[in-house]
Amino acid sequence: MMKRVLAIILGGGKGSRLYPLTKRRAKPAVPLGGKYRLIDIPVSNCINSGIQKIHVLTQFNSVSLNRHISQTYTFDLFSDGFVEILAAEQTDENPNWFQGTADAVRQYLWLLRSFDVSEYLILSGDHLYRMDYSKFVDQHREKKADITIAVLPMEERDASSFGLIKTSPEGEVLSFVEKPEGQALLDARVDTTALGLDAETALRKPYIASMGIYVFSKEAMIQLLENDERQTDFGKDILPKAIHNNYNVRAYLFDGYWEDIGTVRSFYEANLALTEQPKPPFSFYEEDAPIYTRPRFLPPSKILDSHISQSIVSEGCVIKQAKIHHSVVGVRTRIGQGVVIEDSLLMGADYYERAADRETSRASGLPAVGIGENSHIKGAIIDKNARIGAQVQILNKDQVEEGGSADGTFYIRSGIVVIPKNGVVADGTVI
């Protein structure tokens, strides 16, 4: 009975750690895997789990996200399913923008409570994973829980970035601490063999981390969010409050691949991991649980006298006499003769530039959309509609960790060179 579940996807804040990829778009709208967007992951998981009532809460740069959702997710007339954006708005009752994850849900509680549902499924819009939420909800119901938290075992090096919990042998959550450090982090260690891990793995992963995914019973959500605007965040405020007030809070162990795509480095690595052989940690080739996205009706890619290894090439590309290794090539990418692409993510383009327009661009000194002849790109992210000229070298030879150009032509984040959306790199430029 997943018809009794309403999914709420949190669109995130400014996404400053993913900047400049979030300069003109909301975090969930960032392209992924050559043809998808981050929002497609939780929405597809919902659809594959039988959950078709989905709201997406957002307040920053929501134009492209709104367009993508409206062009992608349309249910038939005989279904009560929907995927709708709920953008932050100022009202007479509340003149403030969203102050946190819980506050975002609170501000739309007047709408969410009107649905005839028994549970709210709270999701994040910037995670990469495949999950059957119906099993998550079923456990919540079996345990008669007020709140169920999806968790996974975690190593110490990453644990301080997450909310950490302690549980009873029966899976009841006894404590929740958000992003602890120092002694508080050490105090959060547990024996994770209780979760079914073997002794060696439990020694390596002595923490139980919240995935930021929750099931709330409708009554519990309303009680915890109503009439207390100081409680603005689920992790820092609502969950500790629920545990303190003796709500039935349970843990649900997730044992699959999960990646929090919160930084440029994690985003870059998650994309390139898709090219791994023989089996990547996350695969888009699951017939029983596909990832949906906007149909673009593009032609097949045309590849002429090129050498491509351990890479993903999306549809609609034109690649001429190029070498591509360990890279992801997005839709409509044009790659010129003699180009070398290594360890890079090319997001592609939103449109095809006509031959006449390319000639006009060249005559005015502007490179065509795509990668110009004899250019060499390594360890980079090239955002959509970028114009990379001929004989350009994007290599970060000096191994700069953080930096960029004063005019915003390029940024360097964690050693990765990022060319922003609609960026222009002139012929012969060396980065």
Salient structural properties:
globular; 431 residues; single chain; UDP N-Acetylglucosamine Acyltransferase, domain 1; nine-stranded mixed beta sheet; Spore Coat Polysaccharide Biosynthesis Protein SpsA, Chain A; alpha/beta; 12 helices
Summarize the structure in short.
This protein has about 425 residues and is α/β, with parallel strands linked by helices. It has two domains: about 1-275, Spore Coat Polysaccharide Biosynthesis Protein SpsA, Chain A, CATH 3.90.550.10; about 300-425, 3 Solenoid (UDP N-Acetylglucosamine Acyltransferase, domain 1), CATH 2.160.10.10. About 20% of the residues lie in helices and about 25% in strands.
What structural class should be given to the helix and strand makeup? alpha/beta
Total number of strands: 31
The name of the CATH superfamily of the largest domain reads Spore Coat Polysaccharide Biosynthesis Protein SpsA, Chain A
Instruction: Tell me the number of helical segments per DSSP (H or I, 4 or more residues long).
Output: 12
What's the SSE blueprint?
Layout: E1 5-10, E2 31-32, E3 36-37, H1 40-48, E4 53-58, H2 63-72, E5 82-87, H3 101-107, H4 109-112, E6 119-124, E7 127-129, H5 133-142, E8 147-154, H6 156-159, E9 163-167, E10 173-178, H7 183-187, H8 199-204, E11 207-217, H9 218-225, H10 234-244, E12 249-253, E13 258-260, H11 264-273, E14 302-304, E15 307-309, E16 312-313, E17 318-320, E18 323-325, E19 328-329, E20 334-335, E21 340-342, E22 345-346, H12 355-363, E23 370-371, E24 376-378, E25 380-382, E26 387-388, E27 393-394, E28 402-404, E29 411-413, E30 416-419, E31 424-425
Parallel strand pairs: 1-4, 1-6, 4-5, 8-12, 14-17, 15-18, 16-19, 17-20, 18-21, 19-22, 21-24, 22-25, 23-26, 24-27, 25-30, 26-31
Antiparallel strand pairs: 2-3, 6-11, 7-13, 8-11, 9-10, 9-11, 28-29, 29-30
